[in-house]
Amino acid sequence: MHLMGDALGDFDDAIVNCVAWSQDGRRMECTASQIPEILAQPEGFLWLELRQPSPLVLERVQSLFDVHELAIEDAHLAEQHPKFEVYEPVVGETERESFFMVLTPVVTRGAAHGGASDFALGELHVFLDSRVILLLHLGRYARDFDALGRFERAPLRLGRGMSNALHAVLDEVVDDYIPWHGVFEERLDALERQVISDSVREQGVLTELYALKRTILRLRHALIPVEEMTLSLIAGAHRQNVPKLMRPYFRDVHDHVVQLLAGLEFLREAQMGVLNLHIALGANRQGIVVRKLAGWGAILAVPTMVFSMYGMNFDNMPELHWAWGYPLTLVVTLLGSYGLHRWLKRSGWL
Fold it and tell me: Are residue 104 and residue 121 in the same domain, yes or no?
């Protein structure tokens, strides 16, 4: 067992939302003890949302809703990648076709007030058939995750059933991603300004650029499977459970995903551009320092050469006996060094 976070062993404690709709559309909030009675009704729809379920809660979920054993196994293991699976009924059995999804919703809220480093993803397992939607939040979850509210605000003509519930969950997850694109863009712009203004520490900006790259890739990897999910839904692959009336709504979610993926791809390329700019400017700064050091080395080479020559103690050096020999040597050395300094300054080496 590798359930994420502190699992809650009591079924009632794990419930976030439990709402049922009768055949005539009446809404009723329910408890765990009322679920078997609700499922015994011939019609209706149940929305059950649980957080951090323990293995005991998962066992009860499987017994209540007859969830496919492979889906329950994924919930036990946790840390699954986003995916969408369809469990079709076996010929001759009364089992209904059901969907199983793994999504990674944002668990940090307030994108407008948070930074890119605050971005975090959770894990949401969704079991869905014509009578029930079951949402399992594994590990951290956002308390204002409001797919249920989105489901209830949908037009009545869409009904209170499987396809509308599926759209509400996907729409909530994708809409929560969108503000973070702006956060990443603002952070990248700030890093670019710092790089251009040359007011950054080498290690600090490299660390932030690579951290931003990893965050962008995490969101991109979370979105790609959602694009495939919505594409299959609007293509009519599940006509039995996704009527034509709902396909424009899934197409709208798909459009948001495509636009967000395009924006993230642009940010990824821009991040690489800023990184290359930072590396190029760093190499340029290093070249300037090396050039200055070489220039000063050349200037210091003039007196070094002169003084080392007089340090060889030759016997026949007439200027050593001249009255102006020493001052003349100093003047020539200084003039040579000054002339070389002027030339290097005009050449841009100093």
Answer: yes
pLDDT in tens, 285-315: 778 788 888 888 888 888 888 877 777 777 7
pLDDT given at position 312: 73
d(CA 231, CA 130): 21
Half-sphere exposure of 325 (CA within 13 A, CB side): 8
Alpha carbon distance 90, 36 (integer Å) = 24
Kindly state whether residues 111 and 157 are assigned to the same domain: yes
What the block records as the tokens of 165 is: 């519930």
Residue 349 has, within 13 A of its CA and on its CB side, a CA count of: 16
Residues 256 and 319 in one domain: no
d(CA 224, CA 245): 25
The C-alpha atoms of residue 10 and residue 15 are separated, in whole angstroms, by: 9
Token pair, residue 201, equals: 């520490």
How many Cα neighbours within 13 Å face the side chain of 116? 24
Total number of domains constituting the chain: 2
CA distances from 153 to 146, 149, 164, 168, 318 (A): 11, 6, 11, 9, 106
Same domain, 256 and 301: no
Of 225, 260, 281, the last residue of a domain is 281
What are the backbone angles phi and psi of residue 119, rounded to the nearest 5°?
-65, 130
pTM, two decimal places: 0.77
Task: Tell me if 151 is assigned to some domain.
Answer: yes
Q: What is the DSSP string of 231-269?
A: HHHHTTTTTTTS-GGGHHHHHHHHHHHHHHHHHHHHHHH
> Residue 132: what are its φ and ψ, rounded to 5°?
-145, 140
Residues near 251 by beta carbon (within 8 Å), at least 6 away in sequence: 230, 234
Residue 254 has pLDDT above 90, yes or no: yes
The answer to the question of residue 171 being in a domain is yes
Whether residue 109 is contained in a domain is answered as yes
- Do 101 and 67 meet the contact criterion of CB atoms below 8 Å apart? no
Determine the structural domain holding residue 334 and report its residue range: 286-346
Q: Is residue 160 included in any domain, yes or no?
A: yes
Give residues with Cβ within 8 angstroms of 177, minimum separation 6: 106, 219, 222, 223, 260
Residue where a domain stops, chosen among 227, 261, 281: 281
